[in-house]
Amino acid sequence: MKNKLILALSGNDIFSGGGLHADLATYTVNGLHGFVAVTCLTAMTDKGFEVIPVEEEVFAQQLASLKDISFSAIKIGLLPNLQIAEQALAFVKQHGDIPVVLDPVLVCKENHDLEVSALREEIIKFFPYVSIITPNLAEAQLLTQKEIKTLEDMQAAAKELHDLGAEHVVIKGGNRLSKERAVDVYYDGREFEIMESPVLASNNTGAGCTFASSIASQLLLGKSPLASVQLSKDFVYRAIQRSDQYGVVQYEKSSS
Description:
It is an enzyme of class 2 (transferase). It catalyses: pyridoxal + ATP = pyridoxal 5'-phosphate + ADP + H(+). It is a single chain. This protein is an alpha/beta fold. It has a single domain (5-242), classed as Ribokinase (UDP-N-acetylmuramoyl-L-alanine:D-glutamate ligase, 3-Layer(aba) Sandwich). The protein has helices at 19-29, 56-65, 82-93, 114-126, 137-144, 151-163, 207-220, 225-243; strands spanning 5-10, 33-38, 40-45, 48-53, 73-76, 100-102, 132-133, 168-172, 181-187, 192-198. It is globular, with a radius of gyration of 17 Å. The termini are far apart.
């Protein structure tokens, strides 16, 4: 029988909008008990929004501390470097019997250098061991190394990511294809599901993290992959609708 223990491998957003803050809030709303292994810290400096990886030994100690806990689902967020990603993959391989959602946060590393290339290859290694991946358009472009400008491009990218080993794929289009409609594409290897909702003017900081952690929550609660995605898209839409009611500070940064 499943318990209500769910883990996030994610970063600390200094503005408390995304990362582990969004994950834990989402778990709590769904009546689940959330745990976190922190992959990185962040800071706003003169250089902009910076990601500071935790030390390899510290991350290893966190994972070792959690080795005897019987989680019922895992959500993976920002993996800041190859070393942290390798440790996370080894941990995930030990939990092949539970839902795992991978949100491949790569947009904070859009400079196409050797580090990005190595991290991309490592992220792809996760695909056979996770239930759903949830890249946004920029991340899907980095993973497929192809430009995405149309709905047809999104579908082709989703199929390519599935062919690379991802069982279920959701590409989050946001408002990049249309300023009026937020369009996402779901693909399970057989059929595509196009999901749309109106674009909202409210603060949407952390929406991608919330979406992925909501999917993990719904999978834990017994929903099918497609139903988990559909429920989570609605959940995020309602969260964005209400976000500015709570005095959330709006800001700009270069990560999702």
